[in-house]
């Protein structure tokens, strides 16, 4: 018995977890904070009809015989559609209309809309960290935001917050990230790695040059010595 209730508990937890992966997974419409959105009434309204709008379980608007009984803050247009302005996150929810005819009968189930209000994304920044020969680029995107990386303007396969490459491969490459959510997207300034200075290679070439010079001098000395011996 205890075992089966554990299984049930685990199953319930899984269900809850899968629901919480995308809290916005069950939205019909997304809108940005501060924007306006109109929930359409999909019913031709008569003057004698009474109209109610609900946000989830709360009645936010009620008009009967052209008299508004509830909902000064909510504006309803001439077609009965609900005009939501200056959206804030607490305006997220399911909006359902209800229409009753003059004789009190219902006009039936009318379509509802699940609205999710989200903040637009912030412009991201890319930071660079070095680890011996590897360079890691980090995009400071927020939670639940989609990431896309560009290397010299071309998209790369990685979609995570960090991107790691051998420094040698990306000496002069410019990396930027595009952060988006359902209501907006922003792209960062491009950055370059600073782990290996491309000018560091001049040291190698100077060393190579010195070696060649030494070899040449040695060869000359050898030649001169063998001449003297003759
Ligand atoms: C939203 O609606 C208000 C009132 O109707 C209006 O003043 C404002 O300009 C609208 N804002 C946007 C972003 O359309
Ligand atoms: C950034 O990503 C969003 C969402 O995928 C997309 O709509 C937008 O066009 C992208 N911006 C650029 C510059 O690629």
TrEMBL record:
SUPFAM superfamilies: Immunoglobulin. GO terms for cellular component: membrane. InterPro entries: CD2/SLAM_rcpt (IPR015631), Ig-like_dom (IPR007110), Ig-like_dom_sf (IPR036179), Ig-like_fold (IPR013783). The chain crosses the membrane at residues 203-224. It comes from the Eukaryota. Residues 1-19 form the signal peptide. It is found in: Membrane. Residues 111-188 form the Ig-like domain. Gene3D superfamilies: Immunoglobulins. Keywords: Glycoprotein, Membrane, Signal, Transmembrane, Transmembrane helix. This is Ig-like domain-containing protein. It comes from Oreochromis aureus.
């Amino acid at each position: 018995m205890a075992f089966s209730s554990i299984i049930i508990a685990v199953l319930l937890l899984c269900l809850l977890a899968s629901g919480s992966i995308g809290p916005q997974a069950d939205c019909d419409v997304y809108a940005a904070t501060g924007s306006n959105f109109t929930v359409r009434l999909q019913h031709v309204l008569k003057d004698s009809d009474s109209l109610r709008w609900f946000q989830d379980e709360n009645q936010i608007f009620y008009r009967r015989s052209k008299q508004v009984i509830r909902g000064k803050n909510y504006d309803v247009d001439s077609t009965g559609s609900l005009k939501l302005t200056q959206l804030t996150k607490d305006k997220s929810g399911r909006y359902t209309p209800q229409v009753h005819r003059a004789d009190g009968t219902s006009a039936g189930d009318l379509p509802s809309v699940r609205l999710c209000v989200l903040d637009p994304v912030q412009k991201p920044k890319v930071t660079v960290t070095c680890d011996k020969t590897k360079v890691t680029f980090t995009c400071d995107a927020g939670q639940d935001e989609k990431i896309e990386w560009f290397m010299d303007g071309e998209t790369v396969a990685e979609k995570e917050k960090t991107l790691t490459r051998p420094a040698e491969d990306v000496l002069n490459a410019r990396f930027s990230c595009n952060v988006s959510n359902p209501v907006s997207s922003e792209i960062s300034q491009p950055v370059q790695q600073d782990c290996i200075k491309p000018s560091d290679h001049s040291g190698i070439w100077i060393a190579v040059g010195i070696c060649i010079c030494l070899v040449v001098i040695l060869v000359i000395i050898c030649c001169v010595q063998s001449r003297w011996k003759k």
